[in-house]
Write a structure and sequence with these properties.
407 residues; mainly alpha; Hormone receptor fold; Rhopdopsin 7-helix transmembrane proteins; 2 domains; two-stranded antiparallel ribbon; transmembrane helix; GPCR_2_extracell_dom_sf; G-protein coupled receptor; G protein-coupled peptide receptor activity
Length: 407
């Protein structure tokens, strides 16, 4: 079980010292038999008369425990603390602290995450194979897509390792081995790189649409720096700060004040992408309306389709980010619905994106068959860009920022 950020290692030691001071200051009845007070690592148990049971509120800092419930510790008739028959060690009974309904809900949510990551990983790998196999698809635009897919697939694979080998085993986080710490750092690197490769996608599409003359090869080289280089700098600063300040306990599962080092660059990249979305749609609609037949009194077919697809983008892009910052308090009736919705929208994002791609391909096929204009090149470019916008901004609807995805 993982300790919360409010009880890091030095605070845990402070709690132990405080317990010792309290026990030293209390004087039990010398004529009575009692079990000596003790600190079991989670709670400070007072001197307890023989043959009685002591009760204390459940530790608030233990994930899955309900602080409104009580744990207990039995003092036997001979004045010794009860020992568990299986281990032979002194035992505090915290079994009543576990909220079984909450535990069951969280296990189901983790199951949704794992299933979604597996399905999405299969979809990503198949996409990478297809994009790499066909030589006709080897162009700068596809290169950017491939790097984005590679970032996503690696991140999904690392998440699966995290859910398989760290989350189910509290002993792993308590032992705090170097392997789980390294996994945390690498996982966060690819998590941040997901956002920056999405920023690279937005920057590429925006440049392609609004700039008349530029070198795609040079642009792609710059995007490599954006997608892989910037996250490396960010994660290096984050890792250095946590190590220098000793914030390295529990496989780094604990929330940290240094999480802002990851958070704000991601928020900045999302804000830029939102700007790119608005400006790309604006320029695209201008191009579509300027095509022959676009100045009719009735809206052109392309404009109608553009608005229709844009309306589809708003819930995919906006609603997810309006909801996720407002996480219900633990125990709130809406918490289960929030967690399930977040897990489904996050882990199955690639599958949703693939389904959305099929819709866009069908849309473009129909318009290409129906529309016959003199200015085919410009109109076709606009449609291809529109297809990439749908592809990119569906991927842009991703799981909540940074550490909400790691629980």
């Amino acid at each position: 079980m993982a300790l919360n950020s409010s009880l890091e290692l030095h605070e845990h030691e402070h709690l132990r010292q405080k317990c010792e001071q309290m026990l030293n200051s209390s004087e039990p009845n010398a004529n009575a038999q009692y079990c000596p007070g003790t600190f079991d690592g989670w709670a400070c148990w007072p001197n307890t008369p023989a043959g009685s049971r002591a009760f204390l509120p459940c530790p608030y800092f233990i994930t899955g425990f309900d602080p409104s419930r009580y744990g207990h510790k039995d003092c036997t008739e001979n004045g010794t603390w009860y020992r568990h028959p299986a281990s032979g060690k002194v035992w505090s009974n915290y079994s009543d602290c576990i909220n079984l309904e909450d535990l069951d809900m969280r296990q189901k949510v983790n199951g949704i995450y794992e299933m979604g990551y597996i399905v999405s990983l299969i979809a990503l790998i198949s996409s990478l194979v297809i994009l790499s196999y066909f030589k006709s698809l080897r162009c700068p635009r596809i290169t950017v897509h491939k790097n984005l897919f590679a970032s996503f697939s690696t991140n999904n694979f690392l998440f699966l390792l995290w859910y398989q080998f760290v989350i189910p085993y509290p002993s792993v986080s308590f032992e705090n081995g170097i392997s789980c710490q390294v996994l945390h750092v690498i996982l966060h690197y690819f998590l941040v790189s997901n956002y920056f490769w999405m920023l690279a996608e937005g920057l590429y599409l925006h440049t392609l649409l609004v700039c008349a003359f530029f070198s795609e090869e040079k642009l792609v080289r710059c995007l490599y720096v954006v997608g892989w280089g910037f996250p490396l700098i960010i994660i290096s600063v984050y890792t250095t700060l946590r190590i220098r300040h000793g914030d390295t306990d529990q496989c780094w599962i604990n929330d940290s004040n240094f999480s802002a080092v990851l958070l704000w660059p991601v928020v900045f990249s999302m804000a830029l992408n939102l700007f790119f979305l608005c400006n790309i749609v604006r320029v695209l609609l201008i191009k579509l309306r300027s095509a022959p037949g676009g100045n009719n009194s009735r809206p052109s077919r392309q404009v109608i389709q553009g608005f229709r697809a844009t309306l589809l983008l708003f819930p995919l892009l906006g609603v997810h980010y309006f909801i996720t910052p407002f996480r219900p308090e633990p125990g709130h009736p809406l918490e289960p619905a929030y967690e399930v919705t977040l897990a489904a929208s996050a882990s199955f994002q690639v599958v949703q994106m693939r389904l959305f791609q099929f819709y866009c391909k069908h849309l473009l096929y129909r318009t290409n068959k129906i529309e016959q204009t003199k200015n085919k090149n410009e109109l076709f470019l606009s449609k291809i860009l529109f297809y990439d916008i749908i592809l990119f901004y569906k991927i842009f609807s991703i799981y909540q920022v940074v550490h909400d995805g790691i629980k």
